[in-house]
Amino acid sequence: MTARLVVHVVPRAKRTEVVGRHGDALKIKLKAPPVDGAANAELVRFVAERLDVPRSAVTITAGHSARRKTLEIAGIDAGALGSLAIVFPAG
To answer: By the 8 A CB rule, do 58 and 44 touch?
Structure first.
């Protein structure tokens, strides 16, 4: 079981949090700066924690150096991502 999640990230925020939607993507503010992969690592940590999966289950498959990223999450099905309003409350 693998699910895909499209996110729009905003690095160097006050704190890491989901702030809503950005088009068809989930908008996530990241406290980490976009330097030496710090923001990507923070994104993987945050998503894994929220979905209660190991960090190794979350992979950035597209957009490593862009704000728009595609994540693959192993061990969870796409249906489970339908309840992201509960897992990722905005604000």
So the answer is: yes
> For 4-8, what is the mean pLDDT?
93
**pLDDT one-digit tens code per residue, 29-51:** 999 999 999 999 999 999 999 88
- Residue spans per domain, the chain: 2-81
| Superfamily name and number for 2-81 | YggU-like (3.30.1200.10)
Would you say 27 and 21 are in contact if contact means Cβ atoms under 8 Å apart?
yes
Nearest to 88 by CA among 42, 48, 31: 48
Q: What is the pTM of this model?
A: 0.87
Asked whether 32 and 39 are in contact (CB, 8 A), the reply is yes
